[in-house]
């Protein structure tokens, strides 16, 4: 059996391990995000300034960017194991 045949299950198991650990870590991101939104007063549109608007947007996209990064790492693990 060639080496590629042996690496398919290992690639899938490695990717699942990274996915599970990464998704468990996402829960720890929500509390600091909510605290930052409260500190920046992102809920009220009347008291927000231009600089705070940008900061609120950056804080809001932290979790999606983390999840997108997690999936790109998983894809990289699977592709590297299957082609190498």
Features:
mainly alpha; 84 residues; 3 helices
What shape does the CA trace take?
elongated
Count of domains: 1
From the alpha carbons, calculate the radius of gyration and give it in angstroms.
19 Å
> Mind describing the biggest β-sheet?
none
Helix vs. strand class: mainly alpha
Order of helices and strands: HHH
Q: Spans with pLDDT under 50 lasting ≥5 residues?
A: none
Total of DSSP H or I helical runs spanning 4+ residues: 3
Percentage beta strand: under 5%
Mean pLDDT: 83
Number of E strands: 0
Q: Terminal Cα separation, in Å? A: 15 Å
How helix-rich are the residues, as a percent range?
over 70%
Explain what the structure shows.
- The protein contains three helices and no strands.
- The longest helix is centred in the N-terminal third of the chain and has 38 residues, at 3-40.
- By secondary structure, it is an all-alpha fold.
- It has one domain.
- The two termini are 15 Å apart.
Secondary-structure map:
Elements: H1 3-40, H2 50-60, H3 62-83
């Amino acid at each position: 059996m060639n080496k590629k045949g042996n690496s398919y299950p290992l690639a899938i198991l490695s990717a699942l391990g990274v996915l599970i650990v990464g998704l468990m870590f996402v829960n720890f991101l929500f509390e600091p995000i909510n605290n930052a939104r409260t500190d920046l007063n992102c809920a009220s549109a009347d008291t927000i300034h231009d600089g705070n608007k940008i900061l609120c947007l950056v804080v809001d996209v932290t979790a999606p960017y983390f999840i997108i990064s997690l999936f790109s790492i998983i894809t990289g693990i699977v592709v590297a194991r299957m082609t190498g």
